[in-house]
From TrEMBL:
Pathway listed: Isoprenoid biosynthesis; isopentenyl diphosphate biosynthesis via DXP pathway; isopentenyl diphosphate from 1-deoxy-D-xylulose 5-phosphate: step 3/6
Top-level taxonomy: Bacteria, Pseudomonadati, Pseudomonadota, Betaproteobacteria, Rhodocyclales
Gene: ispE
E.C. designation(s): 2.7.1.148
The protein, known as: 4-diphosphocytidyl-2-C-methyl-D-erythritol kinase
Source species: Zoogloea oleivorans
Alphabetical UniProt keywords: ATP-binding, Isoprene biosynthesis, Kinase, Nucleotide-binding, Transferase
Length: 292
Protein backbone atom coordinates (compact mmCIF):
# COMPACT_ATOMS: atom_id res chain seq x y z
CA UNK A 1 0.00 0.00 0.00
CA UNK A 2 1.19 3.57 -0.61
CA UNK A 3 3.02 5.54 2.09
CA UNK A 4 1.00 8.10 4.02
CA UNK A 5 1.56 11.72 2.95
CA UNK A 6 2.67 14.19 5.63
CA UNK A 7 -0.42 16.16 6.56
CA UNK A 8 1.01 18.24 9.40
CA UNK A 9 -0.22 21.85 9.00
CA UNK A 10 3.24 23.23 8.07
CA UNK A 11 3.68 20.71 5.22
CA UNK A 12 0.15 20.69 3.93
CA UNK A 13 -0.65 22.20 0.49
CA UNK A 14 -4.47 22.17 0.25
CA UNK A 15 -4.50 22.06 -3.56
CA UNK A 16 -2.08 19.10 -3.83
CA UNK A 17 -3.14 15.64 -4.97
CA UNK A 18 -3.15 13.37 -1.91
CA UNK A 19 -3.04 9.58 -2.25
CA UNK A 20 -4.46 7.52 0.59
CA UNK A 21 -4.76 3.75 1.06
CA UNK A 22 -8.10 1.94 1.45
CA UNK A 23 -7.24 -1.50 2.90
CA UNK A 24 -9.39 -4.59 2.35
CA UNK A 25 -10.92 -6.40 5.34
CA UNK A 26 -11.72 -9.99 6.13
CA UNK A 27 -14.33 -11.29 8.57
CA UNK A 28 -12.40 -13.79 10.71
CA UNK A 29 -15.82 -15.20 11.59
CA UNK A 30 -19.41 -14.11 11.04
CA UNK A 31 -22.32 -15.35 13.16
CA UNK A 32 -25.89 -14.25 12.53
CA UNK A 33 -27.59 -13.96 15.92
CA UNK A 34 -30.93 -12.35 15.13
CA UNK A 35 -32.88 -9.87 13.08
CA UNK A 36 -33.97 -6.25 13.64
CA UNK A 37 -37.60 -5.22 13.10
CA UNK A 38 -36.55 -3.58 9.79
CA UNK A 39 -35.26 -6.94 8.52
CA UNK A 40 -31.53 -6.18 8.92
CA UNK A 41 -29.57 -9.05 10.45
CA UNK A 42 -27.80 -8.77 13.78
CA UNK A 43 -24.26 -10.09 13.64
CA UNK A 44 -21.31 -11.01 15.76
CA UNK A 45 -18.15 -10.77 13.69
CA UNK A 46 -14.44 -10.01 13.87
CA UNK A 47 -13.00 -7.61 11.33
CA UNK A 48 -9.35 -7.56 10.39
CA UNK A 49 -7.70 -5.31 7.80
CA UNK A 50 -5.15 -6.49 5.27
CA UNK A 51 -1.98 -4.77 4.16
CA UNK A 52 -3.45 -4.81 0.64
CA UNK A 53 -6.24 -2.85 -1.00
CA UNK A 54 -7.39 0.06 -3.13
CA UNK A 55 -5.82 3.50 -3.42
CA UNK A 56 -7.81 6.73 -3.36
CA UNK A 57 -6.58 10.05 -4.71
CA UNK A 58 -8.08 13.27 -3.42
CA UNK A 59 -7.69 16.89 -4.50
CA UNK A 60 -9.58 19.68 -2.77
CA UNK A 61 -11.70 22.01 -4.93
CA UNK A 62 -12.86 25.48 -3.92
CA UNK A 63 -16.13 25.40 -5.92
CA UNK A 64 -17.93 22.69 -3.92
CA UNK A 65 -18.14 20.24 -6.86
CA UNK A 66 -17.61 16.51 -6.19
CA UNK A 67 -16.05 14.87 -9.27
CA UNK A 68 -14.98 11.27 -9.82
CA UNK A 69 -11.85 11.23 -11.98
CA UNK A 70 -11.66 7.48 -12.64
CA UNK A 71 -14.21 5.05 -14.01
CA UNK A 72 -15.34 2.16 -11.80
CA UNK A 73 -16.92 -0.38 -14.18
CA UNK A 74 -20.57 -1.06 -13.28
CA UNK A 75 -20.76 1.72 -10.68
CA UNK A 76 -22.41 4.96 -11.90
CA UNK A 77 -20.92 8.17 -10.44
CA UNK A 78 -23.86 9.00 -8.17
CA UNK A 79 -23.97 5.43 -6.77
CA UNK A 80 -20.23 5.31 -6.08
CA UNK A 81 -19.61 5.13 -2.35
CA UNK A 82 -16.67 7.56 -2.68
CA UNK A 83 -18.98 10.22 -4.16
CA UNK A 84 -21.72 9.45 -1.62
CA UNK A 85 -19.19 9.69 1.22
CA UNK A 86 -18.01 13.13 0.07
CA UNK A 87 -21.60 14.37 -0.26
CA UNK A 88 -22.50 13.00 3.19
CA UNK A 89 -19.54 14.90 4.70
CA UNK A 90 -20.62 18.11 2.93
CA UNK A 91 -24.17 17.65 4.26
CA UNK A 92 -22.97 16.97 7.80
CA UNK A 93 -20.55 19.91 8.00
CA UNK A 94 -21.85 22.50 5.53
CA UNK A 95 -18.32 22.62 4.05
CA UNK A 96 -18.02 24.88 0.99
CA UNK A 97 -15.22 22.72 -0.43
CA UNK A 98 -15.50 20.03 -3.09
CA UNK A 99 -13.13 17.31 -4.30
CA UNK A 100 -11.77 15.38 -7.25
CA UNK A 101 -11.73 11.72 -6.26
CA UNK A 102 -9.94 8.90 -8.07
CA UNK A 103 -10.11 5.20 -7.19
CA UNK A 104 -7.41 2.73 -8.15
CA UNK A 105 -9.44 -0.47 -7.67
CA UNK A 106 -7.81 -3.75 -6.77
CA UNK A 107 -10.33 -5.17 -4.27
CA UNK A 108 -12.81 -7.39 -6.17
CA UNK A 109 -16.37 -6.01 -6.05
CA UNK A 110 -18.89 -8.23 -4.31
CA UNK A 111 -15.93 -10.11 -2.84
CA UNK A 112 -16.77 -9.74 0.85
CA UNK A 113 -13.56 -7.75 1.33
CA UNK A 114 -15.35 -4.45 1.99
CA UNK A 115 -13.83 -2.55 -0.93
CA UNK A 116 -16.61 0.01 -1.40
CA UNK A 117 -16.86 0.53 2.36
CA UNK A 118 -13.13 1.02 2.77
CA UNK A 119 -13.04 3.47 -0.15
CA UNK A 120 -15.84 5.44 1.52
CA UNK A 121 -14.06 5.42 4.91
CA UNK A 122 -10.80 6.69 3.39
CA UNK A 123 -12.69 9.49 1.62
CA UNK A 124 -14.40 10.51 4.87
CA UNK A 125 -11.11 10.48 6.80
CA UNK A 126 -9.17 12.19 3.98
CA UNK A 127 -11.68 14.96 3.24
CA UNK A 128 -12.31 15.60 6.95
CA UNK A 129 -8.61 16.54 6.98
CA UNK A 130 -8.36 18.29 3.59
CA UNK A 131 -11.48 20.37 4.22
CA UNK A 132 -10.45 21.12 7.83
CA UNK A 133 -13.80 19.87 9.21
CA UNK A 134 -12.31 18.52 12.43
CA UNK A 135 -15.03 15.88 12.98
CA UNK A 136 -14.27 13.31 15.67
CA UNK A 137 -13.80 9.61 14.96
CA UNK A 138 -17.18 8.86 16.58
CA UNK A 139 -18.97 11.38 14.35
CA UNK A 140 -17.26 10.06 11.20
CA UNK A 141 -18.32 6.52 12.20
CA UNK A 142 -21.94 7.73 12.49
CA UNK A 143 -21.82 9.28 9.02
CA UNK A 144 -20.11 6.13 7.71
CA UNK A 145 -22.91 3.90 9.01
CA UNK A 146 -25.39 5.74 6.75
CA UNK A 147 -23.30 4.54 3.78
CA UNK A 148 -22.78 0.88 4.76
CA UNK A 149 -22.47 -1.39 7.78
CA UNK A 150 -18.73 -2.02 7.28
CA UNK A 151 -17.74 1.66 6.99
CA UNK A 152 -17.60 2.43 10.77
CA UNK A 153 -15.06 -0.38 11.26
CA UNK A 154 -12.56 1.14 8.82
CA UNK A 155 -12.88 4.52 10.58
CA UNK A 156 -12.49 2.79 13.96
CA UNK A 157 -9.24 1.57 12.44
CA UNK A 158 -8.25 -1.43 14.58
CA UNK A 159 -8.93 -5.17 14.53
CA UNK A 160 -12.40 -5.34 16.06
CA UNK A 161 -15.09 -7.56 17.50
CA UNK A 162 -18.36 -6.15 16.13
CA UNK A 163 -22.00 -6.51 17.07
CA UNK A 164 -25.28 -4.97 15.92
CA UNK A 165 -25.04 -4.71 12.13
CA UNK A 166 -21.31 -4.17 12.61
CA UNK A 167 -21.36 -0.69 14.14
CA UNK A 168 -20.87 -1.66 17.79
CA UNK A 169 -17.08 -2.10 17.86
CA UNK A 170 -14.55 -3.24 20.44
CA UNK A 171 -10.81 -3.46 19.76
CA UNK A 172 -9.44 -6.99 19.96
CA UNK A 173 -6.02 -8.42 19.42
CA UNK A 174 -5.17 -11.36 17.20
CA UNK A 175 -1.76 -12.92 16.53
CA UNK A 176 0.22 -11.81 13.47
CA UNK A 177 -0.88 -13.77 10.39
CA UNK A 178 -0.37 -13.94 6.67
CA UNK A 179 -3.47 -14.83 4.73
CA UNK A 180 -3.62 -16.78 1.51
CA UNK A 181 -6.49 -15.13 -0.32
CA UNK A 182 -8.51 -16.66 -3.17
CA UNK A 183 -10.98 -14.67 -5.28
CA UNK A 184 -13.25 -17.22 -7.00
CA UNK A 185 -14.68 -16.07 -10.30
CA UNK A 186 -18.02 -15.01 -8.75
CA UNK A 187 -19.57 -11.80 -7.45
CA UNK A 188 -21.99 -12.48 -4.59
CA UNK A 189 -24.97 -10.13 -4.11
CA UNK A 190 -25.08 -9.60 -0.32
CA UNK A 191 -28.85 -8.94 -0.26
CA UNK A 192 -29.61 -12.27 -1.97
CA UNK A 193 -27.68 -14.24 0.65
CA UNK A 194 -29.21 -12.34 3.60
CA UNK A 195 -32.67 -13.07 2.19
CA UNK A 196 -32.09 -16.83 1.67
CA UNK A 197 -34.70 -18.88 3.52
CA UNK A 198 -32.34 -21.53 4.84
CA UNK A 199 -29.81 -19.05 6.34
CA UNK A 200 -28.85 -19.68 10.01
CA UNK A 201 -30.23 -16.70 11.93
CA UNK A 202 -30.09 -17.97 15.49
CA UNK A 203 -26.44 -18.60 16.29
CA UNK A 204 -25.71 -18.63 19.99
CA UNK A 205 -24.51 -15.25 21.30
CA UNK A 206 -20.80 -15.44 22.11
CA UNK A 207 -19.04 -13.74 24.98
CA UNK A 208 -15.84 -12.86 23.14
CA UNK A 209 -12.74 -13.75 25.14
CA UNK A 210 -10.18 -14.85 22.59
CA UNK A 211 -10.63 -15.51 18.92
CA UNK A 212 -10.16 -19.05 17.58
CA UNK A 213 -10.98 -20.34 14.11
CA UNK A 214 -12.16 -23.75 15.37
CA UNK A 215 -14.88 -22.36 17.70
CA UNK A 216 -16.31 -19.99 15.10
CA UNK A 217 -17.70 -20.10 11.55
CA UNK A 218 -19.23 -17.99 8.81
CA UNK A 219 -23.01 -18.48 8.83
CA UNK A 220 -23.32 -17.26 5.23
CA UNK A 221 -20.81 -19.75 3.83
CA UNK A 222 -23.13 -22.75 3.28
CA UNK A 223 -25.73 -20.70 1.40
CA UNK A 224 -23.08 -19.03 -0.79
CA UNK A 225 -21.48 -22.41 -1.57
CA UNK A 226 -24.83 -23.83 -2.63
CA UNK A 227 -25.54 -20.91 -4.97
CA UNK A 228 -21.96 -20.38 -6.21
CA UNK A 229 -20.13 -23.72 -6.82
CA UNK A 230 -16.87 -21.89 -7.61
CA UNK A 231 -16.75 -20.68 -4.00
CA UNK A 232 -17.32 -24.23 -2.75
CA UNK A 233 -14.56 -25.52 -5.05
CA UNK A 234 -12.07 -22.92 -3.78
CA UNK A 235 -12.93 -23.73 -0.14
CA UNK A 236 -12.42 -27.46 -0.69
CA UNK A 237 -9.04 -26.82 -2.30
CA UNK A 238 -7.77 -24.37 0.36
CA UNK A 239 -9.01 -26.63 3.20
CA UNK A 240 -6.31 -29.16 2.20
CA UNK A 241 -3.66 -26.63 3.30
CA UNK A 242 -5.17 -24.60 6.16
CA UNK A 243 -8.25 -23.38 8.04
CA UNK A 244 -10.10 -22.03 5.00
CA UNK A 245 -13.09 -19.74 5.43
CA UNK A 246 -15.19 -17.31 3.42
CA UNK A 247 -15.04 -13.58 4.23
CA UNK A 248 -18.30 -11.68 4.81
CA UNK A 249 -20.95 -12.52 2.22
CA UNK A 250 -18.24 -13.90 -0.13
CA UNK A 251 -17.05 -14.71 -2.68
CA UNK A 252 -13.45 -14.38 -1.44
CA UNK A 253 -11.95 -16.97 0.87
CA UNK A 254 -8.86 -16.98 3.07
CA UNK A 255 -6.70 -19.20 5.25
CA UNK A 256 -4.31 -17.89 7.93
CA UNK A 257 -0.65 -18.95 8.11
CA UNK A 258 1.95 -18.04 10.71
CA UNK A 259 4.58 -17.09 8.14
CA UNK A 260 4.61 -15.39 4.77
CA UNK A 261 6.71 -18.24 3.36
CA UNK A 262 4.10 -20.90 4.26
CA UNK A 263 1.32 -18.86 2.66
CA UNK A 264 3.43 -18.33 -0.47
CA UNK A 265 4.21 -22.05 -0.74
CA UNK A 266 0.48 -22.81 -0.91
CA UNK A 267 -0.12 -19.93 -3.36
CA UNK A 268 2.52 -21.48 -5.62
CA UNK A 269 0.54 -24.72 -5.99
CA UNK A 270 -2.86 -23.09 -6.65
CA UNK A 271 -4.65 -24.36 -9.76
CA UNK A 272 -3.64 -22.51 -12.94
CA UNK A 273 -5.70 -19.41 -13.66
CA UNK A 274 -6.95 -18.91 -10.09
CA UNK A 275 -6.66 -15.44 -8.61
CA UNK A 276 -4.63 -15.94 -5.42
CA UNK A 277 -2.42 -13.64 -3.38
CA UNK A 278 -0.80 -13.34 0.05
CA UNK A 279 -1.55 -10.41 2.37
CA UNK A 280 -0.46 -9.65 5.92
CA UNK A 281 -3.00 -8.86 8.65
CA UNK A 282 -2.90 -5.18 9.56
CA UNK A 283 -3.47 -4.15 13.19
CA UNK A 284 -4.07 -0.44 12.51
CA UNK A 285 -5.55 1.52 9.64
CA UNK A 286 -2.79 3.47 7.85
CA UNK A 287 -4.83 6.70 8.36
CA UNK A 288 -5.45 6.01 12.08
CA UNK A 289 -3.53 9.13 13.16
CA UNK A 290 -5.54 11.44 10.85
CA UNK A 291 -8.60 11.34 13.11
CA UNK A 292 -8.99 12.09 16.82
C1 LIG B 1 -21.81 -9.12 5.10
C2 LIG B 1 -20.93 -7.97 5.52
C3 LIG B 1 -20.10 -8.44 6.72
O1 LIG B 1 -19.06 -7.57 7.01
O2 LIG B 1 -20.01 -7.50 4.58
P1 LIG B 1 -19.65 -7.79 3.03
O3 LIG B 1 -19.53 -9.23 2.82
O4 LIG B 1 -20.77 -7.21 2.20
O5 LIG B 1 -18.36 -7.09 2.79
C4 LIG B 1 -21.78 -6.75 5.91
O6 LIG B 1 -22.59 -7.02 7.03
C5 LIG B 1 -22.63 -6.21 4.78
O7 LIG B 1 -23.22 -5.01 5.21
P2 LIG B 1 -23.58 -3.85 4.15
O8 LIG B 1 -22.33 -3.39 3.48
O9 LIG B 1 -24.42 -2.84 4.85
O10 LIG B 1 -24.41 -4.65 3.15
P3 LIG B 1 -25.15 -4.14 1.84
O11 LIG B 1 -24.48 -4.75 0.67
O12 LIG B 1 -25.35 -2.67 1.87
O13 LIG B 1 -26.56 -4.84 2.14
C6 LIG B 1 -27.38 -5.31 1.16
C7 LIG B 1 -28.64 -5.82 1.82
O14 LIG B 1 -28.34 -6.96 2.68
C8 LIG B 1 -29.22 -6.97 3.79
N1 LIG B 1 -28.46 -6.89 5.05
C9 LIG B 1 -27.24 -6.28 5.12
C10 LIG B 1 -26.55 -6.23 6.32
C11 LIG B 1 -27.15 -6.83 7.46
N2 LIG B 1 -26.54 -6.81 8.66
N3 LIG B 1 -28.36 -7.42 7.37
C12 LIG B 1 -29.02 -7.47 6.19
O15 LIG B 1 -30.12 -8.02 6.12
C13 LIG B 1 -30.15 -5.77 3.64
O16 LIG B 1 -31.30 -6.21 2.95
C14 LIG B 1 -29.34 -4.84 2.73
O17 LIG B 1 -30.15 -3.96 2.00
N1 LIG C 1 -16.19 2.57 -4.74
C1 LIG C 1 -16.83 1.39 -4.83
N2 LIG C 1 -16.12 0.26 -4.88
C2 LIG C 1 -16.73 -0.93 -4.93
N3 LIG C 1 -18.05 -1.12 -4.95
C3 LIG C 1 -18.81 -0.04 -4.91
C4 LIG C 1 -18.25 1.26 -4.85
N4 LIG C 1 -19.26 2.13 -4.79
C5 LIG C 1 -20.39 1.42 -4.83
N5 LIG C 1 -20.16 0.10 -4.90
C6 LIG C 1 -21.18 -0.96 -4.94
O1 LIG C 1 -21.07 -1.75 -3.75
C7 LIG C 1 -21.19 -3.16 -4.05
C8 LIG C 1 -20.42 -3.96 -3.00
O2 LIG C 1 -19.09 -3.82 -3.26
P1 LIG C 1 -17.88 -4.16 -2.26
O3 LIG C 1 -17.93 -3.28 -1.05
O4 LIG C 1 -16.62 -4.08 -3.04
O5 LIG C 1 -18.12 -5.65 -1.90
P2 LIG C 1 -18.55 -6.38 -0.58
O6 LIG C 1 -19.73 -5.62 0.02
O7 LIG C 1 -18.90 -7.75 -1.03
O8 LIG C 1 -17.37 -6.36 0.33
C9 LIG C 1 -20.64 -3.28 -5.48
O9 LIG C 1 -21.24 -4.35 -6.16
C10 LIG C 1 -21.02 -1.94 -6.11
O10 LIG C 1 -22.25 -2.01 -6.76
Amino acid sequence: MPGIPDMSPSEFDPSALVRVPAPAKINLFLHIVGRRPDGYHLLQTAFRMLDWGDEISLRRRDDGAILRTTDVPGVPVEADLVVRAARALQAATGSIFGAEIGVDKRIPMGGGLGGGSSDAASVLIGLNRLWGCGLSRARLQEIGLTLGADVPFFIFGETAFAEGVGEDLQAMSVPPAWYLMVAPDASVPTAEIFSAKELTRDSEILIMRAFAMHTTRNDMQATVCRKFPKVAEALVWLSHYGAARMSGSGACIFAPFDSKEKAEQVAAVAPQGWKVWVAEGLDRHPLQSWVV
